[in-house]
Amino acid sequence: MASIEASNPNRALTDTRFSDLKPPLSEPVLEALTQSGFEFCTPVQAATIPLLCSYKDVAVDAATGSGKTLAFVVPLVEILRRFTSPKPHQVMGIVVSPTRELSSQIFHVAEPFISTLANVKPMLLVGGTEVKADTRKIEEEGANLLIGTPGRLYDIMERMDILDFRNLEILILDEADRLLDMGFQKQITSVISCLPKLRRTGLFSATQTEAVEELSKAGLRNPVRVEVRSETKSLNDSSSSQQSASSKTPSSLHIEYLECEADRKPAQLVDLLIKNKTQKIIIYFMTCACVDYWGVVLPHLAALKGLSIISLHGKMKQTAREKALALFTSLSSGILLCTDVAARGLDIPGVDCIVQFDPPQDPNVFIHRVGRTARMGRQGSAIVFLLPKEEAYVEFLRIRRVPLEERKCSDEAPDIVPQ
Ligand SMILES: Nc1ncnc2c1ncn2[C@@H]1O[C@H](COP(=O)(O)OP(=O)(O)OP(=O)(O)O)[C@@H](O)[C@H]1O
Questions:
Q1: What separation in Å is there between the alpha carbon of 76 and the centre of ligand 1?
Q2: Where is this motif: Q motif (predicted)?
Q3: What is the pLDDT of residues 201-241, one digit of tens each?
Q4: Is the model's pLDDT at 419 over the cut of 50?
Protein backbone atom coordinates (compact mmCIF):
# COMPACT_ATOMS: atom_id res chain seq x y z
CA MET A 1 0.00 0.00 0.00
CA ALA A 2 1.43 3.41 -0.92
CA SER A 3 1.58 5.92 1.90
CA ILE A 4 1.67 9.69 2.06
CA GLU A 5 1.77 12.16 4.92
CA ALA A 6 -0.49 15.19 4.58
CA SER A 7 1.23 18.55 5.02
CA ASN A 8 0.69 20.90 7.96
CA PRO A 9 -0.96 18.29 10.18
CA ASN A 10 -0.83 20.50 13.26
CA ARG A 11 -3.13 23.17 11.94
CA ALA A 12 -6.84 22.99 11.44
CA LEU A 13 -6.53 24.39 7.91
CA THR A 14 -3.79 24.28 5.29
CA ASP A 15 -2.78 27.09 2.93
CA THR A 16 -4.32 25.15 0.06
CA ARG A 17 -7.54 26.60 -1.28
CA PHE A 18 -10.17 24.25 -2.67
CA SER A 19 -9.74 26.21 -5.91
CA ASP A 20 -6.02 25.23 -5.98
CA LEU A 21 -6.63 21.48 -5.96
CA LYS A 22 -5.52 19.33 -8.89
CA PRO A 23 -7.41 17.94 -10.71
CA PRO A 24 -9.48 21.12 -10.41
CA LEU A 25 -12.90 20.99 -8.79
CA SER A 26 -15.92 21.98 -10.86
CA GLU A 27 -17.34 25.49 -10.65
CA PRO A 28 -20.63 24.38 -9.01
CA VAL A 29 -18.76 22.52 -6.25
CA LEU A 30 -16.43 25.49 -5.66
CA GLU A 31 -19.48 27.72 -5.45
CA ALA A 32 -21.21 25.38 -2.98
CA LEU A 33 -18.01 25.33 -0.86
CA THR A 34 -17.84 29.13 -0.87
CA GLN A 35 -21.48 29.40 0.07
CA SER A 36 -20.92 27.06 3.02
CA GLY A 37 -17.95 29.23 4.11
CA PHE A 38 -15.20 26.75 3.14
CA GLU A 39 -12.22 28.31 1.37
CA PHE A 40 -9.11 26.48 2.62
CA CYS A 41 -8.73 22.70 2.85
CA THR A 42 -8.00 20.86 6.05
CA PRO A 43 -4.92 18.58 5.79
CA VAL A 44 -7.03 15.47 5.26
CA GLN A 45 -9.05 17.19 2.53
CA ALA A 46 -5.94 18.52 0.73
CA ALA A 47 -4.50 15.00 0.72
CA THR A 48 -7.59 12.93 -0.03
CA ILE A 49 -9.71 14.88 -2.54
CA PRO A 50 -7.07 14.84 -5.34
CA LEU A 51 -6.48 11.11 -4.81
CA LEU A 52 -10.12 10.05 -5.03
CA CYS A 53 -10.70 12.46 -7.92
CA SER A 54 -7.85 10.78 -9.81
CA TYR A 55 -9.35 7.33 -9.33
CA LYS A 56 -7.20 6.13 -6.45
CA ASP A 57 -8.60 4.10 -3.57
CA VAL A 58 -7.83 5.59 -0.16
CA ALA A 59 -7.63 4.37 3.43
CA VAL A 60 -7.84 7.50 5.55
CA ASP A 61 -6.84 7.70 9.18
CA ALA A 62 -7.25 11.22 10.61
CA ALA A 63 -8.12 12.77 13.98
CA THR A 64 -11.71 13.46 15.00
CA GLY A 65 -13.14 16.76 13.78
CA SER A 66 -10.54 17.10 11.02
CA GLY A 67 -13.04 17.39 8.15
CA LYS A 68 -13.23 13.83 6.85
CA THR A 69 -16.85 14.23 5.69
CA LEU A 70 -16.06 16.84 3.03
CA ALA A 71 -12.93 14.83 2.19
CA PHE A 72 -15.21 12.18 0.70
CA VAL A 73 -18.34 14.20 -0.17
CA VAL A 74 -16.49 16.54 -2.55
CA PRO A 75 -14.76 13.83 -4.63
CA LEU A 76 -17.88 11.68 -4.59
CA VAL A 77 -19.89 14.51 -6.15
CA GLU A 78 -17.12 15.26 -8.66
CA ILE A 79 -16.96 11.61 -9.73
CA LEU A 80 -20.74 11.40 -10.13
CA ARG A 81 -20.65 14.61 -12.19
CA ARG A 82 -18.72 12.75 -14.89
CA PHE A 83 -21.69 10.45 -15.45
CA THR A 84 -24.58 12.61 -16.48
CA SER A 85 -28.13 11.31 -16.51
CA PRO A 86 -28.03 7.92 -14.78
CA LYS A 87 -31.25 5.95 -15.15
CA PRO A 88 -33.65 6.32 -12.16
CA HIS A 89 -32.62 3.05 -10.48
CA GLN A 90 -28.97 3.06 -11.44
CA VAL A 91 -26.95 3.38 -8.23
CA MET A 92 -23.71 5.30 -8.83
CA GLY A 93 -22.51 5.79 -5.25
CA ILE A 94 -22.96 4.38 -1.74
CA VAL A 95 -21.91 5.86 1.61
CA VAL A 96 -22.12 3.53 4.62
CA SER A 97 -21.85 4.78 8.20
CA PRO A 98 -22.50 3.06 11.53
CA THR A 99 -25.35 5.06 13.09
CA ARG A 100 -28.61 6.61 11.94
CA GLU A 101 -27.61 10.00 13.31
CA LEU A 102 -24.28 10.00 11.48
CA SER A 103 -25.84 8.87 8.19
CA SER A 104 -28.39 11.64 8.48
CA GLN A 105 -25.65 14.19 9.23
CA ILE A 106 -23.63 13.06 6.18
CA PHE A 107 -26.77 13.30 4.03
CA HIS A 108 -27.32 16.89 5.12
CA VAL A 109 -23.66 17.89 4.66
CA ALA A 110 -23.77 16.35 1.17
CA GLU A 111 -27.10 17.87 0.10
CA PRO A 112 -25.86 21.26 -1.18
CA PHE A 113 -23.17 19.51 -3.22
CA ILE A 114 -25.45 16.79 -4.59
CA SER A 115 -27.95 19.45 -5.61
CA THR A 116 -25.32 20.73 -8.09
CA LEU A 117 -25.84 17.45 -9.99
CA ALA A 118 -28.89 17.83 -12.20
CA ASN A 119 -29.97 14.21 -12.43
CA VAL A 120 -28.73 12.46 -9.30
CA LYS A 121 -31.32 11.42 -6.74
CA PRO A 122 -29.90 10.79 -3.25
CA MET A 123 -31.66 8.59 -0.69
CA LEU A 124 -31.12 8.34 3.07
CA LEU A 125 -31.58 4.74 4.20
CA VAL A 126 -31.55 4.17 7.98
CA GLY A 127 -33.30 1.88 10.43
CA GLY A 128 -36.04 2.95 12.82
CA THR A 129 -38.52 3.69 10.06
CA GLU A 130 -40.76 1.39 7.97
CA VAL A 131 -38.64 -0.30 5.34
CA LYS A 132 -41.70 -0.35 3.06
CA ALA A 133 -41.73 3.44 3.03
CA ASP A 134 -38.16 3.33 1.66
CA THR A 135 -38.89 0.70 -0.97
CA ARG A 136 -41.99 2.58 -2.15
CA LYS A 137 -40.04 5.82 -2.42
CA ILE A 138 -37.23 4.14 -4.36
CA GLU A 139 -39.70 2.48 -6.73
CA GLU A 140 -41.53 5.74 -7.38
CA GLU A 141 -38.69 8.25 -7.39
CA GLY A 142 -35.56 6.19 -8.14
CA ALA A 143 -32.23 6.42 -6.30
CA ASN A 144 -28.72 7.06 -7.64
CA LEU A 145 -26.81 7.68 -4.40
CA LEU A 146 -27.51 5.68 -1.25
CA ILE A 147 -26.38 7.04 2.14
CA GLY A 148 -27.18 4.92 5.17
CA THR A 149 -26.53 2.35 7.84
CA PRO A 150 -25.36 -1.16 6.85
CA GLY A 151 -28.43 -3.04 8.11
CA ARG A 152 -30.97 -0.99 6.16
CA LEU A 153 -28.78 -0.74 3.06
CA TYR A 154 -28.35 -4.51 3.01
CA ASP A 155 -32.08 -5.00 3.55
CA ILE A 156 -32.93 -2.71 0.63
CA MET A 157 -30.36 -4.36 -1.64
CA GLU A 158 -31.82 -7.78 -0.79
CA ARG A 159 -35.42 -6.73 -1.43
CA MET A 160 -35.06 -4.53 -4.48
CA ASP A 161 -34.00 -6.19 -7.72
CA ILE A 162 -35.00 -3.00 -9.45
CA LEU A 163 -31.80 -1.32 -8.20
CA ASP A 164 -28.91 -1.68 -10.63
CA PHE A 165 -25.40 -1.56 -9.14
CA ARG A 166 -23.48 -2.57 -12.25
CA ASN A 167 -22.23 0.95 -12.92
CA LEU A 168 -21.48 1.94 -9.36
CA GLU A 169 -18.54 4.34 -9.31
CA ILE A 170 -17.75 4.96 -5.66
CA LEU A 171 -18.17 3.29 -2.27
CA ILE A 172 -17.36 5.12 0.98
CA LEU A 173 -17.14 3.31 4.32
CA ASP A 174 -17.15 5.92 7.07
CA GLU A 175 -16.05 5.00 10.62
CA ALA A 176 -14.92 1.74 9.08
CA ASP A 177 -13.70 0.13 12.29
CA ARG A 178 -17.03 0.73 13.99
CA LEU A 179 -18.93 -0.71 11.04
CA LEU A 180 -17.00 -3.92 11.60
CA ASP A 181 -17.05 -4.13 15.36
CA MET A 182 -20.81 -3.56 15.49
CA GLY A 183 -21.09 -6.96 13.83
CA PHE A 184 -21.92 -5.66 10.36
CA GLN A 185 -19.10 -7.53 8.67
CA LYS A 186 -21.54 -9.89 6.91
CA GLN A 187 -23.73 -7.05 5.63
CA ILE A 188 -20.72 -5.04 4.46
CA THR A 189 -19.25 -8.04 2.67
CA SER A 190 -22.61 -8.77 1.04
CA VAL A 191 -23.00 -5.15 -0.05
CA ILE A 192 -19.47 -5.17 -1.51
CA SER A 193 -20.07 -8.47 -3.32
CA CYS A 194 -22.97 -6.86 -5.26
CA LEU A 195 -20.75 -4.04 -6.52
CA PRO A 196 -18.49 -3.94 -9.57
CA LYS A 197 -14.79 -4.43 -8.85
CA LEU A 198 -13.81 -1.48 -11.00
CA ARG A 199 -14.97 1.23 -8.65
CA ARG A 200 -13.37 3.71 -6.26
CA THR A 201 -13.45 2.86 -2.58
CA GLY A 202 -12.62 5.05 0.41
CA LEU A 203 -12.24 3.83 3.99
CA PHE A 204 -12.39 6.61 6.60
CA SER A 205 -11.88 6.58 10.36
CA ALA A 206 -10.06 8.23 13.22
CA THR A 207 -9.14 4.78 14.51
CA GLN A 208 -7.96 1.79 12.50
CA THR A 209 -8.01 -1.83 13.59
CA GLU A 210 -6.80 -5.14 12.20
CA ALA A 211 -10.31 -5.83 10.90
CA VAL A 212 -10.18 -2.57 8.92
CA GLU A 213 -6.80 -3.63 7.55
CA GLU A 214 -8.41 -6.90 6.40
CA LEU A 215 -11.35 -5.08 4.86
CA SER A 216 -8.95 -2.71 3.16
CA LYS A 217 -7.12 -5.67 1.60
CA ALA A 218 -10.38 -7.28 0.49
CA GLY A 219 -12.29 -4.22 -0.73
CA LEU A 220 -9.69 -1.71 -1.95
CA ARG A 221 -7.36 -1.83 -4.97
CA ASN A 222 -3.82 -0.55 -4.36
CA PRO A 223 -5.06 1.99 -1.84
CA VAL A 224 -3.09 5.04 -0.80
CA ARG A 225 -3.01 5.40 2.95
CA VAL A 226 -3.59 8.96 4.16
CA GLU A 227 -2.59 9.56 7.76
CA VAL A 228 -3.05 12.90 9.43
CA ARG A 229 -1.81 13.09 12.98
CA SER A 230 -2.22 15.95 15.40
CA GLU A 231 0.90 17.29 17.06
CA THR A 232 2.36 15.09 19.78
CA LYS A 233 1.19 16.22 23.17
CA SER A 234 3.26 17.28 26.14
CA LEU A 235 4.60 13.95 27.31
CA ASN A 236 7.44 12.22 25.58
CA ASP A 237 6.71 8.57 25.49
CA SER A 238 8.18 5.90 23.33
CA SER A 239 5.37 3.36 23.49
CA SER A 240 3.71 3.12 20.10
CA SER A 241 0.22 2.46 21.48
CA GLN A 242 0.45 5.56 23.65
CA GLN A 243 1.69 7.64 20.74
CA SER A 244 -1.13 6.49 18.55
CA ALA A 245 -3.80 7.26 21.15
CA SER A 246 -2.72 10.82 21.83
CA SER A 247 -1.88 11.64 18.23
CA LYS A 248 -5.46 10.81 17.27
CA THR A 249 -7.01 13.32 19.62
CA PRO A 250 -6.98 16.96 18.50
CA SER A 251 -4.07 18.99 19.86
CA SER A 252 -6.51 21.66 21.09
CA LEU A 253 -8.14 19.12 23.42
CA HIS A 254 -7.19 19.01 27.09
CA ILE A 255 -7.79 15.58 28.62
CA GLU A 256 -7.60 14.68 32.30
CA TYR A 257 -8.87 11.99 34.59
CA LEU A 258 -10.40 11.87 38.01
CA GLU A 259 -9.69 8.85 40.12
CA CYS A 260 -12.36 8.03 42.67
CA GLU A 261 -14.09 5.09 44.27
CA ALA A 262 -17.39 3.91 42.74
CA ASP A 263 -19.53 5.22 45.59
CA ARG A 264 -18.08 8.74 45.19
CA LYS A 265 -18.61 8.99 41.44
CA PRO A 266 -22.22 10.26 41.53
CA ALA A 267 -21.42 13.10 43.94
CA GLN A 268 -18.32 14.00 41.91
CA LEU A 269 -20.41 14.15 38.76
CA VAL A 270 -23.04 16.41 40.29
CA ASP A 271 -20.35 18.65 41.71
CA LEU A 272 -18.69 18.96 38.31
CA LEU A 273 -22.02 19.89 36.71
CA ILE A 274 -22.78 22.49 39.36
CA LYS A 275 -19.40 24.12 38.79
CA ASN A 276 -19.85 24.19 35.02
CA LYS A 277 -23.45 25.25 34.62
CA THR A 278 -22.82 27.56 31.70
CA GLN A 279 -21.05 24.92 29.61
CA LYS A 280 -22.27 22.59 26.89
CA ILE A 281 -21.39 19.13 28.20
CA ILE A 282 -21.78 15.57 26.92
CA ILE A 283 -21.73 12.77 29.52
CA TYR A 284 -21.14 9.18 28.40
CA PHE A 285 -22.55 6.24 30.35
CA MET A 286 -22.09 2.52 29.80
CA THR A 287 -25.76 1.54 29.40
CA CYS A 288 -29.12 2.89 28.22
CA ALA A 289 -30.49 2.19 31.74
CA CYS A 290 -27.84 4.48 33.27
CA VAL A 291 -28.80 7.27 30.87
CA ASP A 292 -32.47 6.82 31.81
CA TYR A 293 -31.61 6.81 35.51
CA TRP A 294 -29.56 10.00 35.39
CA GLY A 295 -32.14 11.57 33.08
CA VAL A 296 -34.62 11.25 35.92
CA VAL A 297 -32.29 12.12 38.82
CA LEU A 298 -30.44 15.19 37.57
CA PRO A 299 -33.46 17.38 36.72
CA HIS A 300 -34.71 16.82 40.30
CA LEU A 301 -31.64 18.42 41.87
CA ALA A 302 -32.33 21.96 42.99
CA ALA A 303 -28.71 22.91 42.29
CA LEU A 304 -29.18 22.10 38.58
CA LYS A 305 -32.58 23.75 38.20
CA GLY A 306 -33.10 25.48 34.87
CA LEU A 307 -30.41 23.51 33.04
CA SER A 308 -31.39 21.70 29.85
CA ILE A 309 -30.74 18.01 30.45
CA ILE A 310 -31.33 15.75 27.44
CA SER A 311 -31.08 11.96 27.11
CA LEU A 312 -30.02 10.04 24.00
CA HIS A 313 -29.55 6.30 23.61
CA GLY A 314 -30.22 3.50 21.15
CA LYS A 315 -33.32 2.15 22.88
CA MET A 316 -35.23 5.39 22.41
CA LYS A 317 -37.70 5.68 19.51
CA GLN A 318 -36.13 7.08 16.35
CA THR A 319 -38.20 10.28 16.46
CA ALA A 320 -37.20 10.87 20.11
CA ARG A 321 -33.52 10.31 19.17
CA GLU A 322 -33.78 12.85 16.38
CA LYS A 323 -35.54 15.39 18.60
CA ALA A 324 -32.99 14.98 21.40
CA LEU A 325 -30.05 15.50 19.06
CA ALA A 326 -31.65 18.48 17.32
CA LEU A 327 -32.43 20.11 20.67
CA PHE A 328 -28.94 19.62 22.10
CA THR A 329 -27.40 20.85 18.83
CA SER A 330 -29.42 24.07 19.06
CA LEU A 331 -28.38 24.88 22.65
CA SER A 332 -25.48 27.10 23.67
CA SER A 333 -25.27 25.37 27.06
CA GLY A 334 -26.78 22.22 28.51
CA ILE A 335 -26.11 18.57 29.22
CA LEU A 336 -26.47 15.55 26.94
CA LEU A 337 -26.63 12.21 28.74
CA CYS A 338 -25.85 9.43 26.28
CA THR A 339 -24.37 6.07 25.37
CA ASP A 340 -21.90 5.41 22.59
CA VAL A 341 -24.68 5.84 20.04
CA ALA A 342 -23.48 9.47 20.15
CA ALA A 343 -19.74 8.71 20.25
CA ARG A 344 -18.93 8.67 16.56
CA GLY A 345 -18.82 11.33 13.93
CA LEU A 346 -21.51 13.62 15.31
CA ASP A 347 -20.63 17.24 14.61
CA ILE A 348 -22.41 19.14 17.39
CA PRO A 349 -21.37 22.78 17.55
CA GLY A 350 -19.95 24.40 20.67
CA VAL A 351 -19.42 21.38 22.94
CA ASP A 352 -17.10 22.56 25.75
CA CYS A 353 -16.52 19.41 27.72
CA ILE A 354 -16.83 15.62 27.46
CA VAL A 355 -17.37 13.68 30.68
CA GLN A 356 -16.93 9.91 30.66
CA PHE A 357 -18.71 8.73 33.76
CA ASP A 358 -17.91 5.18 32.69
CA PRO A 359 -14.75 4.69 30.64
CA PRO A 360 -15.34 2.64 27.48
CA GLN A 361 -14.13 -0.94 27.18
CA ASP A 362 -12.38 -0.15 23.92
CA PRO A 363 -9.78 2.64 24.09
CA ASN A 364 -10.60 3.55 20.46
CA VAL A 365 -14.07 4.56 21.64
CA PHE A 366 -12.39 6.95 24.08
CA ILE A 367 -10.84 8.79 21.11
CA HIS A 368 -14.20 9.14 19.36
CA ARG A 369 -16.06 10.26 22.50
CA VAL A 370 -13.60 13.02 23.36
CA GLY A 371 -13.60 13.99 19.68
CA ARG A 372 -17.07 15.52 20.06
CA THR A 373 -15.26 18.62 21.39
CA ALA A 374 -12.18 20.54 20.23
CA ARG A 375 -13.22 20.13 16.61
CA MET A 376 -11.54 21.97 13.76
CA GLY A 377 -8.89 23.60 15.97
CA ARG A 378 -11.29 24.85 18.66
CA GLN A 379 -10.49 24.41 22.35
CA GLY A 380 -12.19 21.71 24.40
CA SER A 381 -11.73 19.62 27.51
CA ALA A 382 -12.49 16.07 28.55
CA ILE A 383 -12.53 14.31 31.87
CA VAL A 384 -12.81 10.59 32.49
CA PHE A 385 -13.82 9.09 35.82
CA LEU A 386 -11.60 6.14 36.68
CA LEU A 387 -11.74 3.66 39.50
CA PRO A 388 -8.34 2.97 41.07
CA LYS A 389 -8.24 -0.37 39.22
CA GLU A 390 -8.74 1.33 35.85
CA GLU A 391 -5.34 3.02 35.84
CA ALA A 392 -4.32 1.18 32.66
CA TYR A 393 -6.19 3.89 30.73
CA VAL A 394 -3.86 6.54 32.02
CA GLU A 395 -0.86 4.83 30.50
CA PHE A 396 -2.63 4.35 27.21
CA LEU A 397 -3.76 7.94 26.96
CA ARG A 398 -1.01 9.78 28.81
CA ILE A 399 -3.49 12.08 30.50
CA ARG A 400 -3.16 14.28 33.56
CA ARG A 401 -4.72 13.33 36.85
CA VAL A 402 -6.98 15.83 38.59
CA PRO A 403 -6.23 15.43 42.29
CA LEU A 404 -9.41 14.84 44.26
CA GLU A 405 -8.78 18.08 46.19
CA GLU A 406 -9.19 20.08 42.97
CA ARG A 407 -12.58 18.48 42.46
CA LYS A 408 -13.59 18.42 46.08
CA CYS A 409 -17.37 18.12 46.23
CA SER A 410 -19.18 21.28 47.17
CA ASP A 411 -21.73 21.20 49.97
CA GLU A 412 -24.49 21.50 47.39
CA ALA A 413 -23.65 18.17 45.78
CA PRO A 414 -25.87 15.51 47.26
CA ASP A 415 -24.72 11.97 47.80
CA ILE A 416 -26.43 9.93 45.11
CA VAL A 417 -26.08 6.23 44.67
CA PRO A 418 -27.22 4.88 41.31
CA GLN A 419 -29.63 1.97 41.44
N1 LIG B 1 -12.28 23.19 4.94
C2 LIG B 1 -12.98 23.49 6.03
N3 LIG B 1 -12.99 24.78 6.49
C4 LIG B 1 -13.70 25.09 7.60
N5 LIG B 1 -14.45 24.21 8.32
C6 LIG B 1 -14.48 22.94 7.89
C7 LIG B 1 -13.75 22.52 6.73
N8 LIG B 1 -13.96 21.19 6.56
C9 LIG B 1 -14.80 20.79 7.54
N10 LIG B 1 -15.11 21.84 8.35
C11 LIG B 1 -15.98 21.78 9.55
O12 LIG B 1 -15.28 21.01 10.53
C13 LIG B 1 -16.19 20.27 11.33
C14 LIG B 1 -15.74 18.82 11.47
O15 LIG B 1 -15.83 18.15 10.23
P16 LIG B 1 -16.24 16.61 10.12
O17 LIG B 1 -17.51 16.38 10.87
O18 LIG B 1 -16.19 16.23 8.70
O19 LIG B 1 -15.04 15.93 10.94
P20 LIG B 1 -14.61 14.40 10.98
O21 LIG B 1 -13.16 14.35 10.68
O22 LIG B 1 -15.52 13.58 10.13
O23 LIG B 1 -14.84 14.06 12.51
P24 LIG B 1 -15.18 12.64 13.21
O25 LIG B 1 -13.92 11.82 13.18
O26 LIG B 1 -15.57 13.03 14.58
O27 LIG B 1 -16.26 12.02 12.41
C28 LIG B 1 -17.55 20.45 10.69
O29 LIG B 1 -18.30 21.39 11.44
C30 LIG B 1 -17.26 21.01 9.31
O31 LIG B 1 -18.28 21.88 8.83
A1: 16
A2: 18-46
A3: 999 988 878 878 888 887 888 899 999 876 544 333 334 44
A4: no
| Amino acid 19: pLDDT | 97
CA of 109 to the centre of ligand 1 (A): 10
What pLDDT does residue 45 have? 97
Per residue in 106-151, pLDDT tens? 999 999 999 999 889 999 999 988 999 999 999 999 999 999 999 9
β-bridge mates for residue 385, sequence order: 258
Nearest CA to ligand 1 atom 15: 67
User: In terms of domains, do 145 and 198 share one?
Assistant: yes
> For residue 243, is it within any domain?
no
Judgement on whether residues 364 and 223 belong to the same structural domain of the protein: no
How many Å lie between the centroid of ligand 1 and the Cα of residue 69?
A: 6
User: Do residues 182 and 266 share a domain?
Assistant: no
Residue 202 has a pLDDT of 96
pLDDT reported for residue 417: 42
Ligand 1 touching residue 249 (CB < 6 A): no
Answer yes or no: is 240 within a domain: no
pLDDT tens per residue, range 247-258: 578 888 998 989
Task: Give the structural domain span for 85.
Answer: 2-228
Q: Whose CA is nearest to atom 31 of ligand 1?
A: 67
CATH code of 77's domain:
3.40.50.300
Closest ligand 1 atom number to CA of residue 66: 21
* Digit-coded pLDDT (tens) for 376-410: 889 999 999 999 888 777 766 666 666 554 544 44
Rounded distance from Cα 347 to ligand 1 centre (Å):
7
Cβ of residue 67 lying under 6 Å from some atom of ligand 1? yes
Of all residues in the chain, what percent carry a pLDDT higher than 70? 87
Q: Decide if 15 is inside a domain.
A: yes
CB 206 less than 6 A from any atom of ligand 1 = yes
Same domain, 389 and 298: yes
Say if ligand 1 is within 6 A of residue 364 CB.
no
Ligand 1 atom at minimum distance from 376 CA:
12
Q: How confident is the model at residue 177 (pLDDT cuts 50, 70, 90)?
A: confident
How many angstroms is it from 77 CA to the middle of ligand 1? 17
